[in-house]
Known about the structure:
Blueprint: H1 13-34, H2 41-48, H3 52-60, H4 64-68, H5 71-82, H6 84-106, H7 114-121, H8 129-132, H9 143-174, H10 179-205, H11 213-245, H12 260-264, H13 267-281, H14 284-297, H15 313-331, H16 338-362, H17 365-369, H18 371-390, H19 393-414, H20 422-447, H21 460-489, H22 502-529
Amino acid sequence: xxxxxxxxxxxxxxxxxxxxxxxxxxxxxxxxxxxxxxxxxxxxxxxxxxxxxxxxxxxxxxxxxxxxxxxxxxxxxxxxxxxxxxxxxxxxxxxxxxxxxxxxxxxxxxxxxxxxxxxxxxxxxxxxxxxxxxxxxxxxxxxxxxxxxxxxxxxxxxxxxxxxxxxxxxxxxxxxxxxxxxxxxxxxxxxxxxxxxxxxxxxxxxxxxxxxxxxxxxxxxxxxxxxxxxxxxxxxxxxxxxxxxxxxxxxxxxxxxxxxxxxxxxxxxxxxxxxxxxxxxxxxxxxxxxxxxxxxxxxxxxxxxxxxxxxxxxxxxxxxxxxxxxxxxxxxxxxxxxxxxxxxxxxxxxxxxxxxxxxxxxxxxxxxxxxxxxxxxxxxxxxxxxxxxxxxxxxxxxxxxxxxxxxxxxxxxxxxxxxxxxxxxxxxxxxxxxxxxxxxxxxxxxxxxxxxxxxxxxxxxxxxxxxxxxxxxxxxxxxxxxxxxxxxxxxxxxxxxxxxxxxxxxxxxxxxxxxxxxxxxxxxxxxxxxxxxxxxxxx
Length: 539
């Protein structure tokens, strides 16, 4: 008698990748909103009076509640108690609320209101944080920046909750399968969100010739509405999976708060957590200032008025080419035929070169920097696929740290030497940004799939939450520090495009050095305890 084996949704490659796509699209939208103001820092200074300190303080506010109200810890417990689908919908709804507040704060409608007057006279002093120089608000901070910071705090709670939920969801749908490829693909699509932001935020801000920063933020709000729809669709898919597997009714080994002790007493876990905070602190805060850093170090001239490069249609064309890079590179990971696989890679690389040429012709810093997340989109899934089949996660983390150090030092000391060269500066910038993108691709594909090898399945949510909480300390602190260092090392009243970024870049390079040393420590621990971090995920 032939036994019929019942398959679940996750046994179907199409279904589990559809579930991943829904989660990844939600994060794609959230990453766009996260950096929606990054490419228009100069416009925020010109139109809203935000200097570097105000801009950095507002950007750092994203993770303030996660760090000091321990929201992420509670988010991890909510995730382990309530499950992926409930937490994902909740997190997206919270992000949408925060996004709406931030939009109103930077909109013209906020100017001259009683709310603006209230923020001008309140939230000027935060005990203890003020004395330490790390307060989320300060006296003299523009009212729009204060209110935007409040909205960004709420958004950040939802965004980081979504981050740990997506990681848990991928573990749920892909454990024992192509997990590193799945996590790498999710992060790649999220990085595409950053590239999208770099392209379209300045586009909407300058649409029609009149500058309006609120249009850029409104674009992000619309995308957050789409993200909420994606998570609702995922809700019903995940619900069907639990009905098939009976996982929702499994209570034999339930989560207990006391289980967190197993996490915090694991040395390997803490090394991974510290690597995360060091590495991401050297990337994400830099990302918020990178466009302005390029504006300050490159010799850029506007294209001739009336030409194709000066028109609005070039933005759409450039974005289509960006999608070709991402789609062709991603599709190559699923081709068994070598000629087809290499053909798609060749197409992706050709499109990338075309994109770089267009960025040079457009002569805009945001268009040039967009190649950073774009390269991550191309190679992160490739690296994830390699790790699934060959391992070497810790070795990749070490390599990523070395590349990170080299890139920040190049930005600090080499790029300024080409300030007077219209072509040389752009070439150095592109080469460094591409290497930095490669460095950033090594981390998510190797770091996040390592966590399930360190902790029990029932506390994965709390483990990711604790890592994200530690990471958020850096993501809160370093945007603020960069802004303060910029104001301290540059003349008062300096133009937004004439700042010296040497000191902040050296500071970020030092984080890379610390990550490098910890990478070697983790490699030694893995070798001693046999954690399997260097082993492939598919056996």
